[in-house]
Write a structure and sequence with these properties.
Strand content: 15-25%
Oligomer: single chain
Structural class: alpha/beta
Largest sheet: 8 strands, mixed
Bound molecules: adenosine-5'-diphosphate, magnesium ion
Shape: globular
CATH superfamily of the largest domain: Acetylglutamate kinase-like
Length: 314
């Protein structure tokens, strides 16, 4: 059996913060990102690709809001916006990866799976929604929205306005897991759990329903990697290595750490909440459940010897 890698792409892989989000930009980024995978493909890995959707889903929500205001198009809930982003990002990534494969005379089938991920309605995260999504509003607009919709809005710490916050519950089960596993074991490249997956829960015994929440992309990717028995888990972001004492004169890049060391650094607060912390936690989850290694690095370091930070069981 070929080896199986799950590769999670961060926000920058598809849309950088200094870009507008035009389709040309996203296609060019997706092409570059896809080129990074050649190393793994040429080394005979089966691949599942996952990706973030922050800027894209933000734009979808803005477009919804504007469409609603201007034309009365019904507003769509968060889960529908996540599904929408999985579809269009998957489309772009798939197409650009096809172009890259063609340019290198390689042949692989590629398929995007709109992925639903089961969460628990009783997850404590629902008591404390803290993940900002969508546009910024004035205080007055936010107050009106709070009383109209019952949703929560928080003031941005950097003074940019008020933003809706939703819960980030733990992923329990990847509902499309068996399909993903079958396809990837058939050597197809599968794009799945985009944006952490569409969060759904059982509202009644026979009724599955989407919920206004977002699942952390790294956490969902780790859950998928464990459930399909991946041999390697890559988390790609915009820094080549995980550091301790990050952004201080004592900063030190980590080449290789054990789960025990990773837990110690986590407890000491070396990894920022909402950025590096969820990645390290996702890596620990994968390593402890599989005994295999996880690597956190930037996409240009993918497959480079000693590139990135390797997290191992011991
Ligand atoms: P994503 O690529 O998934 O969008 P984020 O931007 O959320 O990822 O997280 C990556 C960022 O985490 C890096 O750009 C870096 O600035 C930041 N970061 C926080 N703590 C650390 C650390 N200890 N070592 C390295 N990077 C860190
Ligand atoms: Mg980022």
């Amino acid at each position: 059996m070929k080896k199986l890698a799950v590769v999670a792409f961060g926000g920058n892989a598809l849309l950088r913060s200094d870009q507008k989000g035009t389709i040309d930009e996203q296609e060019a980024n997706a092409y570059q990102t896809s080129e990074r995978l050649l190393m793994l493909i040429q080394n005979n890995y089966d691949l599942v690709l996952t990706h973030g959707n922050g800027p894209q889903v933000g734009n979808i929500i803005l477009a919804n809001t504007a469409g609603n205001k201007m034309y009365g198009i019904p507003d769509m809930p968060m889960d529908v916006s996540v599904a929408y982003s999985q579809g269009f990002i998957g489309y772009i990534l798939e197409q650009q990866l096809r172009n890259v494969l063609k340019a290198h005379d390689l042949e692989r089938d590629i398929i995007t799976i709109i992925t639903q991920v089961l969460v628990d309605k009783e997850d404590p995260a629902f008591q404390n929604p803290n993940k900002p999504v969508g546009p910024y509003y004035s205080k007055e607009e936010a107050e009106a929205l709070i009383s109209d919709t019952g949703a929560k809005y928080h003031e941005d710490p950097r003074g940019r306005g008020w933003r809706k916050v939703v819960a980030s519950p733990r992923p329990l089960t990847i509902l499309n897991q068996r399909s993903i596993e079958k396809l990837v074991r058939d050597h197809q490249i599968v794009i799945a759990v985009g944006g952490g997956g569409v969060p759904v829960f059982w509202v009644a015994e026979n009724k599955l329903q989407g919920i206004d929440a977002v699942i952390d992309k790294d956490s969902a990717s780790a859950a998928l990697a464990v459930s399909i028995n991946a041999d390697k888990f890559f988390i790609l972001t915009d820094v080549p290595k995980v550091c301790i004492n990050y952004n201080t004169p004592m900063e030190k890049a980590l080449d290789r750490i054990s789960v025990k060391q990773a837990r110690k650094y986590l407890a000491e607060g070396h990894f920022s909440e909402g950025s590096m912390e969820p990645k390290v936690k996702a890596a620990i989850y994968f390593v402890t459940h599989t005994g295999k290694d996880a690597i956190i690095t930037s996409s240009n370091m993918l497959g480079v010897d000693n590139g990135g930070t390797r997290i191992s069981i011991v």
